[in-house]
Amino acid sequence: MAWRKGDRVDRPRLKDVARAAGVSTATVSLVLNDRHEGVRIPAETRRRVRQVAEDLGYSPNTLARSLRTQRSQTVALLSDQIVTTPFAVPIVAAAQEAAWRRGYLLFLFDTGGNPQIERAAIASLQQQQVAAIIYATMYHRVVPVPPGLPEQTVFVNCRPRGGGYAAAVPDERGGARAAVLELLDYGHRRIAFLDDELTPEASALRQLGLRDALAERGAIFDPALHLRAPASAAGGQAVGALLDLPNDRRPTGVFCFNDRMAMGVYRAARQRGLRIPQELSVVGFDDQEYLAAELDPPLTTVALPHRDMGRWAVEALLDGPDADAGSGAAQSTGTVLMPCPLVRRDSVARRAD
Question: Can you list the domains of the chain with their CATH numbers?
Fold first, then answer.
């Protein structure tokens, strides 16, 4: 008798799904493991297999797979503070979604930046036979490789000192270039760069992006318009020293290290009666949720690719020739630059003559 939607199957197995969907068990396995590379399965077939599996109530036998591969169906995300940082939550959300689609669960472990906790966490995760580890940091930087990390590890939002592992980081330089080109294309030439006084990795890269954009448009970098301050709204008000300059020397555009500093620039401008964007254009960086879009006017900014990095991490770890063993693209090392797109809103306007 042919299977019909609504029929019940006790403890459905892979072959039950295959029979009901009219495909091979190999096809069902490839579809339910979300394998695409080197696999040609029509979208309609993929949809039908997933629908049949859902209707039958099929779920992979994770215990049997774990015994066979000596790996649990879990991926661990180990971080310093990223789990408790609201604007970086998309990394976790995207990694969790991608892992779930492949039949894996994502474990989160926040060390608070404590090396002892980190070492204990890595040892514990190894004992639990996690399939792979995502090592993530709150902000982009080069980090020493913690002892005991398994080969099946990728780095996210950071790069391992000395290499040896695959990593994904934001293209800070490209994002800054896009931000400054936006100001230049609106006619601005006196552009201030409000920078983080702590000079993190991103600071130097964003300054390079600024210089790239200026060189492309034949403009000159003016060191007098480069200010360093705390990377906060209070620090952003340091731009007031530049806004008090005579009109022929005052910047008409400001590129900020982050959106919080941009918020401080808004405040400093309004204290001086300067309208944004009519008399001062501002571009931020981060596209921080609940901040950039809520400013008045909404802030043009550069988005950090948090979701893209989280998704990439799982794909790199699990989408390989032997997905069951957790042997994905992470077998190759190197750093992937994730694009930082410009998000246009209302804080940039053509320079007033």
Answer: 14-59 (1.10.260.40), 65-170+306-338 (3.40.50.2300), 172-304 (3.40.50.2300)
